[in-house]
Specification:
Distance between the termini: 20 Å
Helix content: 55-70%
Radius of gyration: 31 Å
Largest sheet: 2 strands, antiparallel
Shape: elongated
Number of strands: 4
Number of helices: 28
Structural class: mainly alpha
Strand order of the largest sheet: 1-2
Strand content: under 5%
Length: 434
């Protein structure tokens, strides 16, 4: 049995990041604050100084921090002098829990947080509080929060907590609010790209795309995406944004993206993330965009077949089992089947050709391989021997007898060879079954 390496696995196994709501379990799992820091509890001063994720000002002591449990002891430093650590004693070791308690008390009403909603949204507890307000469905509270955060949408979309609030808002906002958000998000192309490439921003952007309800909104976002499509398709985070467009928009909506992908087919197909996007483009397209994509892949079939990622695209097209398309790919590969059989990635494509082609076309491939002057090399190759076994399995009649005859001629060179003996075992197995 052929042992598949990681490189020979299916690229379709990539899992898209899911859009999770910020539940209690996820929030509590995040370390909140450094328990040995000194904090300023006044929310009015949150704009001043360095902000941590909770929105609190952290005043780190200028002296060296002590080690827990040794406050009142003296030790020798590296120069041999004693260092008195008693003056470093932290009088507020439990300030973290006190701060959290006092900060939560300010979440009793939105009015108490006027002018500070943006900062609250970037805090794990504050984000949860605001999400619950959205879930309550009060239009006045939703509008209040929206008016406070709308100018900070791009920053919140890439924040580890704020992105959850924006995802929730995209689910419940009305058309007018969505229009304002959309214009703010796409107004700066560089910021838009940064959002899509960010691990938090990509989830928020995907949620936004899911809830675009009008043709005008979709047209607007596609008009901007078309200029950054190639970069997004090659990003581990950004390619999910393009796939969301393919999933939730029509071919007509996506025609500009599909054209850009077709224009850059070879570069995208040979990228780890891009090859997945290209397959999805073919899956969701129809009409002329589909024909153009398939035509570009077919024209580059030989180059793609030998590539670590491109070979998956060729196999995907063969797997569609469209006779005229398969025939065109076989034409592109004709004359190279023996060399492809000995290529780590091309051997997969040759086996796919044998499996998915019509019988007479598959036999033509076998005939080309056994008539190659490198047929013995194919039999002894760590990848080619699998192609030979697949060829033996589908061959019939005169071609099968010719193949068996050639293998017997090279018996002495095969029976002690680690790869060649697998082909011999295939022949013996067939004889026993007969």
């Amino acid at each position: 049995m052929r042992v598949q390496s990681a490189a020979r696995g299916q690229m379709g196994l990539y899992v898209q990041p899911q859009n999770y709501s910020l539940g209690d379990e996820g929030l509590d799992a995040i370390s909140y604050l450094n328990s040995r820091a000194t904090f300023d509890y006044d929310l009015n001063n949150l704009y001043n100084g360095g902000l941590n994720l909770s929105g609190a000002t952290i005043r780190y002591p200028s002296h060296l921090p002590y080690e827990m449990g040794y406050e009142n002891q003296s030790y020798l430093n590296r120069n041999g002098f004693k260092l008195d650590t008693s003056k470093f004693e932290d009088k507020g070791a439990n300030n973290s829990s006190i701060f959290v308690s006092q900060f939560r008390q300010n979440f009793s009403s939105l009015e108490n947080l006027r002018g500070k909603i943006f900062l609250v949204a970037k805090d794990q507890y504050g984000c949860r509080f605001l999400q619950k307000k959205f879930e309550g469905g009060n239009p006045e509270e939703i509008q209040f929060i929206f008016s406070e955060v709308k100018d900070y949408v791009r920053e919140l979309m890439v924040d580890q907590f704020g992105n959850y609030l924006m995802q929730k808002f995209f689910e419940i906002c009305n058309e007018q609010q969505m229009n304002q958000i959309l214009l703010l998000v796409i107004s700066d192309e560089r910021s838009l790209l940064a959002i899509c490439l960010d691990m938090h921003g990509t989830r928020a952007m995907q949620k936004l795309l899911e809830h675009l309800t009008t043709p005008e909104q979709r047209s607007l976002v596609i008009s901007v995406f078309r200029r950054i499509t190639v970069t997004l398709t090659k990003s581990i985070n950004g390619h999910h944004v393009i796939q969301h467009c393919l999933k939730f928009f029509s071919t007509q909506d996506n025609k500009h993206i599909l054209n850009v992908v077709a224009d850059n087919c070879l570069g995208i197909a040979t990228d780890k993330s891009g090859c997945c996007v290209l397959q999805q483009c073919v899956a969701h397209a129809n009409g002329k965009p589909w024909e153009r994509l398939v035509g570009e892949i077919t024209a580059n079939a030989l180059v793609l077949s030998e590539h670590p990622y491109g070979n998956y695209v060729v196999q995907y097209i063969l797997g569609l089992k469209i006779p005229q398309v398969t025939a065109k790919i076989l034409e592109q590969l004709a004359g190279a089947y023996a060399s492809l059989s000995m290529n780590k990635y091309g051997s997969n494509v040759v086996e796919k050709c044998l499996k998915e082609s019509e019988e007479h076309l598959a036999l033509e491939i076998v005939n080309e391989i056994i008539r190659s002057p490198n047929f013995l090399m194919v039999l002894q190759d760590p990848y080619g021997n699998y192609v030979a076994q697949s060829a033996m399995a589908i061959s019939k009649g005169a071609i099968r007898h010719a193949m068996i005859h050639l293998i017997h001629i090279h018996y002495e060179l095969l029976h002690s060879h680690p790869h060649g003996k697998r082909v011999l075992a295939q022949i013996r197995g067939r004889k026993q079954r007969v």
